């Protein structure tokens, strides 16, 4: 419901854009060009590192260190290290390989080998991702793991597993000190045992002030280039984001004494300078890193439909994680953008309120940009195919009247020839696309969407959050417009009731809630929430034929952790779940101190489960995603914190 | 010279009949009043002594007041006796008791003296201390802070304490009964969340198994005026600009430094901080208003992926209100609403912000 409300509001925000008021990206680029930067006439030969940027296709920029050779790092999904893993019947560890360095094989062919005492053990593939395996740890001992992705790019790791007669779980901790502590936020981990309260003394590493100075040439002089800078690391769940201005470099506080490399994405404020990704930068080099920014490759052209100019279309190129600037078409259909050399994916979104396709080309079939300073012309012409109008009249589930203001999301089947792209004088190539449209029904429950490509559409009807009638959160229908206009009258699906009972030792705390998150909704926003009564009963109003993750959210400040208790799938009838016993809890008590042993009050400590599930943090990727902490606390004046966690023995 | 020696040579003379030498007369021992308290406590051992001209003293006591005919009663009815120069009485039963001492000389003469004593029950003396606060620390607390005040008792009779009765004096001088914490369930710990700033006092009376209360313990403490909450960004380190892909979620998570409503909350304490999230799409040539995200007041907020398209710029704002809900009183154009607050992250007071604004640029 919350998401619906917000989406409605966002739709309203987006709807207020007026074409007449839009200052196009092309115009902005032209302005910069007038300053002598957009025409590619400025040479960067005198700036150290500029050649490296130009010669390396713009992706890997390592001005101070040689590029790493290609290798595969092996990390555990659930634990921060590969020692003292619990062994026993049914126990396992998930490992993920991460390819780093250059040059990489064009196609990664993952070949894993695992052995213990010379005896080969077959790892299990998981979730169709060959970089991820599940290694059974039936017995204690040393396990050797090796992996190859081809072309000599390999990795090795050694696991040690110990027999355990008690269940343990690794808990991922995020430790966020106050700004006054001069210590960067850090990830940590503890292992908790069933039925045993745990302790953890967390020591913050003194941070060092890094200095990142993006520069550019202006009239032959080197000047600071105002930029937004994002610093990330594959071994940290934290991003450092900030800005370098025309008078000051970006000076984040980082742990520069470690070994974990940083990735820097530098996005200049000037549209005449494309973003630059500096991958796997050694920490020590960030103490004082100057990054000369070159103008890259100028890409310009026209966006048209059947030859007629389109205004407000936005074109973005991307090489891996490195984007171009965005080129927005002006009233003449003209755009300009800047990108780094190399192979890029292409993505063009139509103007707001247009029902035309979004175009996407993967990098493998995308745009190859030549060396620095080049000019490339790219024209994109939408296919001027016949279109169709869709008219839907949406009623309440019981047919008692219109379902006013229902949100309507349309997604077309892929269209192979949605447009053509012409690069320079070469022959046009087809560009695939798909149509996405979001609309809102009127007070009569009617929605009319014009100018749609003739295709098959999946239509999701979402109940407006302010609706007073009962219905499912979402109703999905299919519409075939291949033959032309379509009109239909549909009813929203009735909501299904999923009910259940929760047992809590000591009684149900007031304010306990059960939350259902639709697995299709990657935002993690709850679709349904049910209050738990004093008898432990709850009811969720969910959609038919959908899958949900369920979790129990405790009220703020109570000594209960958040508990994830599995997934359910609905059909077309109400469902009664088995009784769920809220697990017992164990306490994790600890103290946060700095490197000199002084306690750090006001530090936030968040505990997450550590696993592949969306509700947990994958230790090998350390991306929080949509996961929510099981428990969080702030340290008191003595630096002490207490977290209440689910007992691994009773989950 | 002993009194007995003098008697043995005494001569009885009459004025008109001459003198008659008499036999020595053995008088009863001379015994002073019993020395000791008139009132004694239950279960407390109190000593009694007496000045006597003989060392042969036998002591005992009887329940109830001393009867008038005690001296005439058969000695066997006086109950058990103990010998010695002093005597201790200890009994659980409150009320009058009769302490007696029987002095005997070598000739068998006896003197019985007695003393009425009242055995009193003394209620336990209450004690108070603040949990989590050093005894030397000044008891100054935050508004709404959930205080735990531990009660104890010193009972002269070493009796089992039966009940703790708490009373709180509020800043306006009125009193209210205090509510004990659920744990421990003997009522010895008071849980109290002060609802207004000012000077408070907590009072504890402890009663023993006989229902008697001793000295009441009182302690005063002060509750600071409410301080404005301070928001801090826990994800991006306070960056004003956030770069994202159009198909990436943007997660905002904030914490609140506050005296009464910190978030995350202190262990076991409720936090009634309120988060107000607002959004605005930035567009060239158009000034859109910040629009509140309705029905949402959590510390974490996500901009769902694909809500916007590449090139869009969105402003996201959060404002925090503690339960006092003092309006921010800042212009919408202010990205942060900086005010003086003792809740500033430095803990030493200073400036802090009740509002935080980010610009999300979907340009990656």
Topology summary:
The complex is a heterodimer of chains A (651) and B (364).
Chain A: H1 2-15, H2 25-34, H3 50-55, E1 71-76, E2 85-87, E3 92-100, E4 111-116, E5 119-121, E6 124-126, E7 129-136, E8 141-148, E9 154-163, E10 168-176, E11 186-193, E12 198-203, E13 208-209, E14 212-218, E15 221-224, E16 227-232, E17 240-244, E18 253-254, E19 262-268, E20 276-281, E21 289-292, E22 297-305, E23 308-309, E24 314-319, E25 322-323, E26 327-328, E27 334-339, E28 342-349, E29 358-361, E30 367-369, E31 375-382, E32 387-395, E33 407-412, E34 415-423, E35 429-434, E36 436-440, E37 446-453, E38 456-462, E39 474-480, E40 486-491, E41 496-503, E42 513-518, E43 528-531, E44 537-542, E45 547-553, E46 563-569, E47 575-576, E48 580-581, E49 585-593, E50 604-609, E51 631-634, E52 640-646
Chain B: H1 3-8, E1 11-14, E2 18-21, E3 39-41, E4 46-49, E5 57-63, E6 82-83, E7 86-89, E8 95-104, E9 110-120, E10 125-130, E11 140-141, E12 147-154, E13 161-169, E14 175-177, E15 179-180, E16 189-192, E17 198-208, E18 217-223, E19 230-233, E20 241-243, E21 250-257, E22 274-282, E23 291-292, E24 300-303, E25 313-321, E26 338-341, E27 350-353, E28 355-361
Parallel strand pairs in B: 3-9, 11-18, 20-28
Antiparallel strand pairs in B: 1-2, 4-7, 5-6, 5-8, 8-9, 10-12, 12-16, 13-14, 13-17, 15-16, 17-18, 19-21, 21-24, 22-23, 22-25, 25-28, 26-27
Structure explained in plain terms:
The complex is a heterodimer of chains A (651) and B (364). Chain A is mostly beta strands and 651 residues long. Helix content of chain A is 5%, strand content 47%. Chain A has 3 helices and 52 strands. In chain A, strands 22, 23, 24, 25, 26, 27, 28, 29, 30, 31, 34 and 35 form a 12-stranded mixed sheet that branches. In chain A, strands 2-9-8-4-5 form a 5-stranded mixed sheet, with no helix packed on it. In chain A, strands 1-3-7-6 form a 4-stranded antiparallel sheet, with no helix packed on it. Residues 1-65 of chain A have low confidence and may be disordered. Chain B is mostly beta strands and 364 residues long. Chain B is built from 1 helix and 28 strands. Chain B has a 5-stranded mixed sheet with strand order 3-9-8-5-6, with no helix packed on it. The longest helix of chain B has 6 residues, at 3-8. The radius of gyration of chain B is 41 Å and the shape is rod-shaped. The interface between A and B is large, with 72 and 55 residues.
């Amino acid at each position: 419901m919350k998401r619906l409300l917000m989406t409605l509001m966002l739709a309203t925000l987006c709807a207020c854009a007026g074409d007449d008021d839009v200052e196009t990206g092309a115009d902005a680029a032209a302005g910069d060009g007038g300053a002598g930067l957009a025409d590619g006439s400025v040479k960067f030969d005198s700036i150290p590192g500029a050649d490296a940027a130009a010669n390396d296709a713009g992706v890997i920029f390592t001005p101070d260190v040689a590029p790493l050779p290609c290798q595969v790092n092996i990390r555990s999904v659930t634990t921060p290290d590969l020692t003292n893993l619990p062994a026993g019947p049914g126990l396992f560890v998930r490992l993920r390989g991460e390819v780093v360095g250059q040059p990489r094989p064009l196609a990664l062919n993952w070949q894993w080998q695992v052995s213990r005492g010379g005896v080969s053990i077959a790892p299990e593939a998981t979730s169709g991702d060959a970089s991820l395996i599940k290694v059974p740890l039936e017995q204690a001992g040393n396990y050797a793991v090796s992996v190859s992705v081809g072309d000599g790019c390999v990795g090795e790791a050694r696991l040690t597993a110990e027999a355990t007669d008690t269940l343990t779980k690794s808990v991922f901790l995020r430790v966020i000190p106050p700004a006054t502590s001069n210590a960067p936020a850090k990830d940590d981990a503890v292992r908790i045992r069933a039925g045993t309260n745990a302790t953890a003394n967390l020591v913050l590493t003194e941070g060092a002030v890094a200095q990142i100075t993006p520069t550019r040439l202006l009239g032959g002089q080197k000047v600071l280039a105002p930029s937004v800078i994002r610093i990330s690391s594959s071994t940290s769940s934290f991003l450092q984001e900030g800005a370098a201005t025309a008078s000051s470099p970006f000076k984040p506080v980082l742990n520069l004494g470690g070994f974990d490399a940083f990735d820097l994405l530098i996005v200049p404020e000037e549209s005449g300078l494309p973003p630059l990704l500096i991958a796997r930068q050694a920490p020590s080099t960030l103490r004082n890193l100057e990054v000369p920014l070159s103008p890259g490759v100028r890409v310009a052209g026209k966006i048209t439909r059947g030859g007629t100019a389109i205004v407000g279309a936005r074109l973005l190129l991307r090489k891996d994680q490195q984007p171009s600037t965005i080129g927005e078409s002006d009233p003449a259909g003209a755009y300009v953008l800047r990108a780094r050399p190399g192979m890029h994916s292409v993505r063009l979104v139509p103007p707001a309120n247009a029902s035309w396709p979004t175009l996407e080309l993967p990098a493998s079939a995308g745009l190859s940009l030549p060396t620095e300073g080049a000019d490339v012309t790219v024209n994109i012409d939408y296919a001027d195919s016949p279109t169709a109008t869709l008219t839907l009249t949406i009623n309440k589930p019981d047919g008692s009247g219109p379902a006013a203001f229902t949100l309507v999301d349309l997604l077309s089947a892929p269209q192979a020839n949605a447009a053509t792209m012409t690069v320079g004088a070469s022959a046009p190539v087809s560009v695939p696309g798909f149509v996405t449209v979001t609309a809102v029904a009127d007070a009569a429950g009617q929605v009319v969407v014009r100018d749609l490509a003739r295709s098959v559409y999946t239509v999701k009807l979402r109940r407006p959050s302010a609706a007073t009638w009962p219905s499912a959160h979402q109703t999905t229908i299919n519409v075939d417009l291949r033959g032309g206009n379509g009109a239909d009258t549909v009813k929203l699906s009735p909501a299904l009731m999923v009910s259940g009972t929760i047992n809590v030792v000591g009684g149900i705390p007031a304010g306990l809630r059960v939350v259902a998150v639709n697995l299709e909704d990657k935002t993690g926003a709850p679709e349904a929430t049910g209050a738990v009564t004093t008898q432990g009963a709850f009811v969720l109003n969910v959609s038919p034929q959908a899958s949900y993750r369920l979790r129990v959210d405790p009220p703020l400040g109570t000594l209960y952790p958040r508990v994830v208790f599995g997934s359910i799938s609905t059909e077309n009838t109400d469902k009664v779940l088995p009784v769920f016993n809220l697990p017992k809890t164990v306490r994790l008590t600890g103290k946060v101190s700095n490197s000199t042993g002084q306690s750090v009050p006001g530090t936030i400590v968040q505990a997450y489960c550590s696993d592949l599930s969306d509700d947990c943090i994958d230790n090998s990727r350390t991306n929080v995603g949509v996961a929510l902490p099981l428990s969080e606390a702030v340290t008191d004046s003595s630096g002490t914190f207490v977290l209440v966690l689910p007992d691994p023995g009773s989950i | 010279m002993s009194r007995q020696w003098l008697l043995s040579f005494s001569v009885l003379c009459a004025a008109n009949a001459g003198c008659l030498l008499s036999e020595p007369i053995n008088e009863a021992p001379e015994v002073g009043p019993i020395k000791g308290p008139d009132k004694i406590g239950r279960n407390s051992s109190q000593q009694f002594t007496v000045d006597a001209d003989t060392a042969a003293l036998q002591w005992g006591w009887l329940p109830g007041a001393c009867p008038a005919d005690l001296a005439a009663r058969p000695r066997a009815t006086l109950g058990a006796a103990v010998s010695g120069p002093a005597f201790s009485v200890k009994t659980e039963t409150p009320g009058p008791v009769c302490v007696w001492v029987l002095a005997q000389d070598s000739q068998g003469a006896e003197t019985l003296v007695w003393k009425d004593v009242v055995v009193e029950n003394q209620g336990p003396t209450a004690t108070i201390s603040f949990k989590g606060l050093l005894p030397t620390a000044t008891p100054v607390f935050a508004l709404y802070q959930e205080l735990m005040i531990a009660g104890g008792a010193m009972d002269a009779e070493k009796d089992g304490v039966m009940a703790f009765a708490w009373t709180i004096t509020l800043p306006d001088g009125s009193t209210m009964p205090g509510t004990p914490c659920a744990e421990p369930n003997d009522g010895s710990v008071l849980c109290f969340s002060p609802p207004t700033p000012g000077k408070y006092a907590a009072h504890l009376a402890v009663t023993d198994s006989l229902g008697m209360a001793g000295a009441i313990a009182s302690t005063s403490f002060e509750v600071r005026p409410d301080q404005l909450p301070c928001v801090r960004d826990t994800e991006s380190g306070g960056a004003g600009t956030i770069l994202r892909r159009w198909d990436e979620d943007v997660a905002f998570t904030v914490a609140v430094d506050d005296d009464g409503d910190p978030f995350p909350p202190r262990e076991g304490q409720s936090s009634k901080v309120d988060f107000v999230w607002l959004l605005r799409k930035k567009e060239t040539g158009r000034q859109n208003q910040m629009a509140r995200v309705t029905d949402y007041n959590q510390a974490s907020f996500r901009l769902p992926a694909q809500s916007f398209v590449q090139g869009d710029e969105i402003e996201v704002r959060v404002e925090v209100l503690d339960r006092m809900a003092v309006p921010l009183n800042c212009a919408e154009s202010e990205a942060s609403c900086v005010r003086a607050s003792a809740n500033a992250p430095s803990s030493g007071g200073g400036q802090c912000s009740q509002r935080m604004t980010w610009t999300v640029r979907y340009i990656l």
